Amino acid sequence: MSVVIIAVLALLALAITFGAILGFASVRFKVEGNPLVDQIDGILPQTQCGQCGYPGCRPYAEAIAGGDAINKCPPGGESTIAALADLLDVDPMPLDEEHGVSQGKRVAFIREDECIGCTKCIQACPVDAILGAAKQMHTVIVDECTGCDLCVDPCPVDCIDMIPVGQTIRDWSWDKPGSKPIDSRQIIATDLQAESNDQEAA
Amino acid sequence: MRQIWDFHGGIHPPENKHQSTRQAIKNAGIPQYLFLPLSQHIGQPAVPVVEIGQRVRKGEMVAEAIGPVSVPVHAPTSGTVIAIEDHQVPHPSGLTDSCIVIETDGLDEWTELTPCEDYEELSSSDILHRVRQAGIAGLGGAGFPTAIKLHPPRNDKVNALILNAAECEPYITADDMLMRERASEVIGGLEIMASILQPEECLIGIEDNKPEAIAALREAARETQIEVVVIPTKYPSGGEKQLIRILTGLEVPQGHIPADIGVMCQNVGTSAAVYRAIRYGEPLISRITTVTGDAVAHPGNFDTLIGTRMSHLLTQAGFNADKASRVLMGGPMMGFALLSTDIPIVKTTNCLLAATDLEFPQPQPEQPCIRCGMCAEACPAELLPQQLFWFAKAQEFEKAEMYNLFDCIECGACSYVCPSSIPLVQYYRYSKNQVRTTKLEQEKSDKARERFEFRQSRLQREQEEKEAKRKARAEAAAKAQAARAAEAEAAVDPKKAAVAEAVKRAQAKREQASAPLADLTELESNVQKAKDKLAKVEASLQQAEADQSDMTDKLRNAVAKNRDRLEFAEKALADARKQSSDSDNTGTNTPPQDTEQLQRSIKRQEDKVATLKNAIEEALKSDPDRAAQLQPSLDKSLAKLAELKSALGTNSSDQSENNTPAPDPEQLQVQVDKARDKLLMMQGMLDEARQESPSDDAKVTKLTRAVEKNQERLTAAEKALTDAQQQATPVAPKISAEELETLRTNIDKARDKLSMMQGMLDEAQTESPEDEAKIAKLTRAVEKNLERVNAAETAYQEAGGEIRDPVSQS
Amino acid sequence: MALLQITSPHLRGKNRTASVMQWVLLATLPGFVALTWFFGWGVLINVVWASLLALVSEAAIVKLRKRPVMFYLGDYSAVVTAVLLGLALPPFAPWWVTMVGILFAIVISKQLYGGLGSNPFNPAMVGYALLLVSFPVEMTTHWATPSSLTELPDFLSTLQYIFGGGNLNIDGVTMATPLDTYKHQIDVLTREEVSQLPIFGQHVALGWEWVNLGFLAGGLLLIWRKIITWHIPLSMLAALAVCSLVLGWDPDRYTPVSIHLLSGATMLGAFFIATDPVTAATSRLGKLYYGAGIGILIYIIRTWGSYPDAVAFSVLLMNFAAPFLDYYTKPRTYGHRKAHRGIKKSD
Hints:
By secondary structure, chain A is mainly alpha-helical. Chain A has six helices and four strands. Among the domains of chain A are: 35-99, Orthogonal Bundle (3-methyladenine DNA Glycosylase II, Chain A, domain 3), CATH 1.10.15.40; 103-167, 2-Layer Sandwich (Alpha-Beta Plaits). In chain A, 33% of the residues lie in helices and 7% in strands. The radius of gyration of chain A is 26 Å and the shape is elongated. Chain C folds into two domains: 18-173, no CATH class; 176-330, no CATH class. Chain C is globular and about 65 Å long. Chains in contact: A-B, A-C, B-C.
């Protein structure tokens, strides 16, 4: 019987000791602020388009840190959702289509013949990528444009197009092996059989 | 015998060089068209300096270099520029790039050249300038501008100048033939380069499978200090880093260039080109290209003009298109497959391999990696290729970088030895690109974030400046007003002064309303006070209920009233908060004020709702879970739509007014009830007055007027209520159980009062029927209470409650 | 004519996974022949039975995974696992012992982890360890007496016995292995008396010495063909020998080194089992540590553990450590001053 008591006392002592250590550590090494929001913000694509329902990427990052769903960002696409799931240790979800579909990278283009110089698009652009002034020609700085298409609606003469950015010789690269069949004689013996199946039409 | 070292790994593929060394170098002749890509080198593409239709002579510059890391492009023969357009260029992707197209005239007319008999008369910078102007880039395959390479950063001292004559890749013999036939040019070029760099020693590293070339070089270098070092044949000893290790025993540190350890490596072809550029003033307009493989009948080496189409060369070598399964540019280990033969030769094209199926069989399907480690045994960079493979396959690019992915020279030795036929080099190329792309995207998004935050702070600053200005103006105006009011007071009617005061107060209030940030703390304390009071009253109610005292009814009323007050205070606080946050986020969050825009947004939202509805219907047929998922989205969209519509309504009706909340039917109802009650009271008072003191005209008139006014107010309130009810959203506000309960208590109260009144009336009727006044009063009271009960019951029914035996029907 | 996604290099060497496996099978032949000669037909029957079961079960699993069956069976890896397990089992082990072992090895220890190349533990040894722990009687009392000591039953009788029939008196043809004998007898007898026991024969251990020499020959063939490297076998044998010489130098108390090296599954383990590339360490230095670890563990378990032969457990224990060894024995890459250790980024 005394053995049992000794065992219980020993465990109790251990528990108290470790509890004290943990308590001390939680106070002494407490991190001020919420670095998680910065990390989440670092993953989001910064298009500031508002498609997620929040006015910009930082508010959405704060919402995610507060528990909101991670699948609301169409410009980020699947890779962003996967990265967020990795960071927050949750399951990745498919993109919530209510907020928009994930399209390829696009940039805005103003048809200068029709532009009336009203500056409405300049006010709408969240990253100040449109150059111009009242009654002056407006033009999009392509390098800064994130493709968020917030400028398209405010334009009173509807002169802004969203143009997909194509691939040039400078940014071409090899595909992951196994993702495309080399020719019809190939036995696809890898785990990417599903991907290769929908490339068969290509 | 000079000491040489060895590098780790390496393979010995079959050489297959004998096919193309049987004959001397042939001249490929002048084709009809020449396609000159503007980017045949590492660095900025060249920019054309000719126009379409311009006639150019042989050696004339047709595109100039832009920036330090760039080389110009020259016309390889005389002819006319017929186009400057996109054309397919040699690249594994098969994509196009800008090219200058020249139609040759066959005259081969040279432009003016500036030869130099003795290079020692020229200064180093002069030589470098001529090398750059001659368009010389590394002919070994990389295409790095030679002038830059020959000018080491920080003027590092070069101890060893090495010529790379290894040509380790199978099938390629271009450098071999060049050395056999033009060794003097090679040595000459080396001397010129040595004069710029002043190295301690000059070495030529050559593999032992080229005995004729070794002899030729030794003969040409007989009277110089240049040493020809023979190294064992192994692939890839021609790699710059590997050759440096073999000849000097040194390793180029990661992230650095050979110049940092005092070594420089140049290709023999580049060296010969430098010689011709300085001695004869000739720019780089041709190179020796090997054409070989089983699908060409007469393999050999051709002195080809840059820009010649590959089909021209292949025809000269007897190309058989039927036998060829693939055409490679470069060797079998590092070359890439071409999609067509219409592509021009560029400065870095050292070989064209037209191979049959037998020679290069189809790649086998990829089998699982058995971790045999043969790839690590073969890797010249001493990496762990199978680890890089596992990481690339699992998309763990950070770990791959940690395992030195970027040290891979993509030589292909690992893929060569892999027993499972895994395309290792493709995995590495893919991973490297993914890492680069991710870095680029991260930079881009960081920049976008910076711009966004700057824009936010700029807008906030502007808003604050506006506020400050407005405040200053308001204060000035108020002061002016006060001065004038004081004057007015001294001069005229006290009434006018009172009016002025009232106006001043109203103005001050309006200012207060438009300075939202100041009062948040006050509103917050209001909320807190209301909360405390409510808690207190609720506590006493509980007490009373426990004690079963008759204060319970009163206390219940008090609780309800306090709850209302709390709600009101919270609402005011929320509005104030919203106002202040709105002023912070102007420009990004404010819903569009413009009516047209609203309409467009409404239309968009309606479309969204329609699509969602369709999706839900379809989903209901097949996948009810998805329907359930979509339902909240639909609700949200509908709510948004309603918001937009009400905003539109508010905008179109009163655009000048400032943030008035949409008319709330409940509030209006309350107002209506109040108006009605007041009217009845006034009416009662009027009747009383008429009966009891009919002589008091003033009183009667006043009361009549009051009754009329109240009537008007009631009608107005009722109208507002009906308007609001028409405009109100189809989504009925949810009635909480509490509110329902309150309504129910209202009914009970009203009913109690009614029965009490009824009782009193009966009593009066039976006991004192002659007291008409009393009876009249009581009858009126009964009617009033009846109405009240009706109203309460209707309200309750509308809210969704059920009444067992409504008084209104009895 | 030209194909889109073919990347360099366009030349391939001669190595193929199937040929690697075939060479391994070839190299087991000398030891295999010696085993059959000295210990009867049981070994052959076990190997054939195990190979059949391995191929069938692997085909079944591959079919379930919706892959092309012949492609996966064509790399001979299942056959190699079966042969190694069959060689390691006692010759008179019943058919169901072999079946349980090989099914567990192929299905659970190899295919369920993702197939060839993805298994963290050596499948043959996993099967063997399972059998040793689950059926200790069958695994320790069914070792055959060497043929020079007694008349071993013929092929048919052995077949019948293994498949659960016939009327073979097993006690007459089984005896303990040399390692087992020495370990237990040295407590009661002196060294001279023990070495007089018939099991030890003229040289080291009757029958077993030739078996081990046969496997040694096979292993050297593999090293010559560059199928395996010398690091693991050398370090394992060296570690075992050193431990035996240093710790067990007294033959009156411990098994001498010659018996350690030339009896039991030592050589089979050194050249065929420990060198399994999928589960061993990959870098050269790592392989040395890996082999040494196995050698040390073999000695410890044989001397102070309760199992007479310890190759299976030692290999499995070092399989645990292989990834860790890989992280800490990465080779120095060209251009870097020193090798990177551990899994954290250095910068």
